[in-house]
Amino acid sequence: MRLFTWNMQRGSTVLSRYGVASDDFRVDSLRYDLLQDLCFQGDLGMITEPGADIRNMIKNTATEPVNGGFFVMDMRPDNQHQISACRPALWMKQWAPWDVLCDVPSGAVAAHRFPVARQYNLTKKHKLVVVALHATSGRKSGAENTREIVEIFKQYAKREGAGGLIVGGDFNAHITGRRYGSSTERRNEWAWSMPAAFTNQGASSAGGIDGFLFFTNNKSPGPIKFSISRPMPLYDIDRARYRLVLSSARPDGEPAGFQVLAGENADGSGKEWWYRLSDHSPVIQDCGLRLLDRDGAVVGAA
User: Which DSSP category does 17 fall into?
Assistant: First the structure.
């Protein structure tokens, strides 16, 4: 299974028939091309800060296939401003009809960044809950907000007998180490987030950002174990096409952020043409699922 998470910084795409396009159709097209690539290569996508075009598309055509899968989002009123709203979306290659709600305040005191969650019934006994989350960067710490939300979904998994939980998105905090357990400290739980130094903020930032958390409910009738590789930012996977420009090292005054190469020598000058798509790089995570029985024996894979 391939997962991805991307904070799109509310950038628009050519899905703008559902919203208002930006002034730069070229950037909209490039942003959409990348999102399309992520969806075609992935199985689940946790998208934080999608643009108004994607949010409106979900609202108007909730079950319409897009990019070979389906977008979903918590549709409850959240008291966020439409222009600056941070509403996480979940992209699924396979439709999951079971909606799981979570009500934990985030962002401003009077506003909510509701996570979006779905449950897959892989077999009669093996249930997998997947969550897209954008933790607060205000009101309370991202670590505290993430902990609250993760605990709610862990309790849901235990109550409903779900064997596994995957949470992905922008945690606005480091989620490695003893707070959430690691593969060596607590073998039923594993978590990792990109250092914020890997955004355009550079080494001056000591926080954490985009990542994933996995939890196995060993007391479930059908535990799900995860075989996990280290998450990778997209610009590290394909350095020929993508780059991250830090605020402290901008070439020729270019805007800092995650950029894509979309041509060179277009005017005969030999110049490379880079376009900024967001302040965050997408992060890719590969994992395998092993389906166990109560005694820990492997009975299947997904």
Answer: G
CA–CA separation, 71 vs 92, rounded Å?
7
Task: Convert the pLDDT of each residue in 107-157 to its tens digit.
Answer: 555 667 788 899 999 999 999 999 998 887 655 677 788 888 888 889 999
Give the pair of three-digit tokens for residue 60. 């108007």
CA distance 206 to 195: 7
Is-contact 257 274, C-beta < 8 A? no
* Sign of the four-CA dihedral 285, 286, 292, 297: negative
pLDDT in tens, 228-263: 887 888 888 888 899 888 766 555 666 778 899 987
Rg (CA), the chain: 19
Task: State the pTM of this model.
Answer: 0.87
Pairing status of strand 2-7 against strand 44-48: parallel
Is residue 205 within 8 A of residue 162, CB to CB? The reply is: no
Residues 58, 81: Cα–Cα separation, whole Å:
17
Instruction: Output phi, psi for 51, to 5 deg.
Output: -70, 170
- Give, rounded to a whole angstrom, the gap between the first and last alpha carbons of the chain: 8
Q: Counting beta carbons within 10 angstroms of the beta carbon of residue 249, is it exposed (0 to 12), middle (13 to 18) or buried (19 or more)? A: exposed
Structure tokens at 90: 């979940």
What's the sign of the alpha-carbon dihedral 171, 30, 56, 23? positive
Task: Look at residues 37, 41, 56, 50 and name the one whose alpha carbon lies nearest to residue 6.
Answer: 50
- Cα gap 70→202, rounded to integer Å: 34
Segments of the chain assigned E as strands = 2-7, 44-48, 70-72, 89-92, 98-100, 116-121, 127-134, 164-170, 189-195, 208-216, 224-228, 232-233, 242-245, 257-264, 272-278, 283-292, 298-301
Residue 66 DSSP one-character state: B
- The 8-class DSSP code of residue 69 comes to B
C-alpha closest to that of 8 among 36, 23, 179: 36
